[in-house]
User: Fold this.
Amino acid sequence: MLRRVALPFVLVMTILSGAGVAEAQSSREGQAEPAEIVLRSGRIVTLDEALPEATALAASAGRIMAVGSDREIEAYVGAGTEVIDLDGRLAIPGFIEGHGHFMSLGNSRLILDLMHVTGWDEIVDMVAAVARDAAPGEWIRGRGWHQEKWESVREPTVDEVPLHTGLSAVSPENPVLLGHASGHAAFANARALELAGIDRDTPDPPGGTIVRDEEGDPTGLLRETAQRLVSAVMARQRAARTLDEQVAEARLAAKVAFDELLAKGVTSFQDAGSGFQLIDFFRGLAEEGEMPVRLYVMVRTSNEEMARHLAEYRMVDHLDGYLTVRSIKRQVDGALGSHGAWLLEPYSDMPETDGLVLEPLEEIRRTAELALQHDYQLNTHAIGDRANREILDIYESAYADARAADAGADPRWRIEHAQHVHPDDLPRFAELGVIPAMQAIHGCSDAPWVPERLGLERAASDGYMWRAFTESGAVVTNGTDAPVEDVDPIASYHCTVARRLPDGSVFFAGQGDQRLSRIEALRTYTINNAYAAFEEDRKGTLSPGKYADIVVLSKDILEVPEAEILDARVLYTIVGGEVKYRAE
Assistant:
């Protein structure tokens, strides 16, 4: 079982003069307490300034006991100790995914995976294959398509996306809903539109767009909140399944997600938005010992529901650190790719719009009040420069109230994504103590089309400003927004240090280089993410007393040539001192 009982031993962190070893208190005079697991003969990069590097490490009862040389750690090897010889390989703190969607990651593996399709015809063929065997009326679901990545597009198109006719022809009786890679748009066939009651007379919902052709008929493309018109119908139908069926699917999705995270070296996952019912599901998994990766969950629901339940759901380090709920997720705008990011000036390639407001500012202000009242962190999705400015204004006002009540208040509120920030607003993050919770991989994925959306000047001056944020003193975090991107930390790490595109060029290298050093990039994926969740005292560095969450890699990503970083593979993922993943 993965759950363990915390043991009442006392850990003492010491740097011994001359020896350079950090160790725990001995249980027998002159003899170290035997460890449950020892790593030795490697390059252990701790990110702890007291002892930045070592060759060996000992852990027991889920915590790191000591870090030092092979000779020093040998004292912790007993008859029952699992010893892993690293053979010179790199061991680092476990990767912390700073912003992802846990159940969406698992669910995305149970439906059509459209992340790697090369054109619309391929999508139509995939749907046709499923439709041939689908039960009458069964929904066909998929996620991951992105029109900017297609090699070919079937004409005619509206906003670079084909009409629903081809999809409707291969699945006339089965409703189809295919989510965009960003999660900020979806595509529906005629049957799905019909079930949702969407036709040429249906008005656009607040914060969304039903894309239409020249005749005014829906094309099938639904931006932002418009996709909820269809997804709500699908959800009602799927809710009619038996409870056992729903729970079985949820458990399968969770297992699939956990397995993928462990295989990619992720030991903690910051889940960007789940309701209270899903949090109950997570708590059940944790209490059953079926949660092998630590979850930091952001509550996402209405202000009314939060006012009723925030107090009872707040939990920190529940079950030895496997589940924490102490933050809230809101969303002010959409994504740049779907023209939903809220901008100060109109889009260069769609000058009739400056984006969409998904949640009214008044609601977010009320959420800020609730967060302060119940001691929750507030994390708000903001991608466009207008969105970031408006959220900073809300935070600044709330911070003033918090610090008037408590001069030492440290809210550590976050702006999720912070992709496009006006130069005038960038210093405000550090000044206020607001955390830019970024995903470096978005910079490399979006780079080919960002100048088209924003124009060259805006794209260069306010987009994906990792270096500028870091030098300003802000704590920059990293992640993938999975399943928007592959949850692989190594790919996002590589983009952080390289910003290199498939054609070999570097994204705006000559106009204010925003790349980070390799050690800076590693901090964004470890200790910075821990700090952003108030967990820097428990994880993020390989220090005695902290959780023994460790990743061993096949290549030293701090030293190998840049191009070889992407070849690095996870050999071991260790969570709480247990090997949860071991490469074949």
Q: What stands out?
A: Confidence is low (pLDDT under 50) at residues 1-20, 24-29. Residues 1-94+541-584 form a domain with the Urease, subunit C; domain 1 fold (CATH 2.30.40.10). The longest strand covers residues 266-274. The chain is about 30% helix and 20% strand.
